[in-house]
Predict the 3D structure of the following.
Amino acid sequence: MLLTTIAGSLPKPSWLAKPRVLWAPWNLSGPALAEGKRDAVLVALGEQEAAGIDIVSDGEQSRQHFVHGFLEAIDGVDFTRRVTIGIRADRYKAEVPTVTGPLARRRSVHADEVAFARAHTTKKLKFTVPGPMTIVDTLADEHYRDRRRLAMEFARVINEEARELAALGLDVLQLDEPAFNVYMDEVRTWGIEALHRAIDGLSCKTAVHICYGYGIKANTDWKATLGSEWRQYEQTFPALAASRIDQISVECANSRVPVSLLGLLRGKDVLVGAVDVATDAVETPAEVAATIRRALPYVPPERLYPCTNCGMVPLDRAVARGKLRALVEGTALVRRELGVT
Ligand code: ZN
């Protein structure tokens, strides 16, 4: 009950990539990079275990970008055709590759990483891949020229990958869909359908992470325009509650999301973001506990998983470590109140 987990990413060690930079280039190359990534996964697992996190991830140590890392093994995506486009309804500019032909998974993308992480922790293991709508929103398309059709093709490719990863002993496969907070109409018309195709036949639990983004300026500026109450979730939670996804990961710490909206996810596991990733201020356990307590009237404790709001990759490592500890200690306070050990 009240099992802790993280949204996915952790900061990378400085020998692997420049700290405090989103999408930082690697500091190593060739075999040294491969070795460095594996070493970083051991560090990420160790830090989560030391903090007492119950369901750990590989910290996304092996990918530079949470979307493009997945695309590097997909035929039909041309990384030599990079263009700069506005993404997330033009919230910020990103340099993205172009879809120029039919999509096909050339090889397994993450199997080695999952097998390595699985072999080095006895904790429950979660792994994240980008969701179809967020992928579609993070590249240019000159082939399918239809967002829904392109999403369904990506969902097919994700499903091939996901089945392989689940067979390696994953406990949770999470699809990251920050785009679900931007294109709420499309979530209902094809976003959930694409998720269903992506998780079809999976043997492990499935999760979808829907956030307001990393703590970068474009996102904090955008949040400032969203008014006193952020009600984006209100439009998508009923559809998610009716979906076949097991777990929904949401942003609650320091957020203007009305916590009562969590009640719309009845019947689902809810990963309650109780750690803010947009500030270097490390939460006190009491602050984490307060966020969890606010959610408890709407999410029963056996379905509530204290989590981070989003990935922590752009944070200072000491800050991230502090936030992991605060998450665990704050959860322990609430567990004691509920009489759970
Ligand atoms: Zn996020």
The two ends are 9 Å apart (CA to CA). The domain at 30-71+108-338 is CATH 3.20.20.210 (TIM Barrel). Residues 7, 178, 209, 211, 310-311 surround zinc ion (CB under 6 Å).
